[in-house]
Write a structure and sequence with these properties.
With 102 residues, the protein is of the alpha/beta class. The chain contains three helices and five strands. Helix content is 30%, strand content 17%.
Length: 102
């Protein structure tokens, strides 16, 4: 799970490298305490690259701050499956009561 987490101050180039290494299409953006801030998809990275921002910009400009998530104490696998299918997303972070990614 740790390889899917990324800091909002990371550069676009580093996020792309991390996605390539993990083989994932989405990363979970967290603060220093692992609290959920949002998600960064491969589409977000592509848009940044098309804007010519691969080397200098941080992901904080591009990640989705209103990402879909589930609460640890209140979700089911069928609920998660329905969200994956309906929203066509690759990652659904699961958070605890303090918004930490678990």
């Amino acid at each position: 799970m740790k390889n899917l987490l990324i800091n909002p101050n990371s550069k676009i180039k580093n996020a792309l490298k991390q996605m390539t290494e993990t083989g994932e299409k989405c990363l979970v953006v967290v603060d220093k305490k692992n609290k959920l801030l949002g998600t960064l998809s491969d589409g977000d990275v592509r848009r940044a690259i098309l804007n010519g921002k691969i080397n200098e910009d941080k992901i904080s400009v591009y990640y989705q701050k209103r990402s879909t998530f589930l609460r640890k104490e209140n979700y089911s696998l069928s609920q998660a499956k329905n969200i994956f299918l309906k929203k066509r997303i690759d990652v659904i972070p699961i958070i605890d009561r303090s918004k930490k990614v678990v």
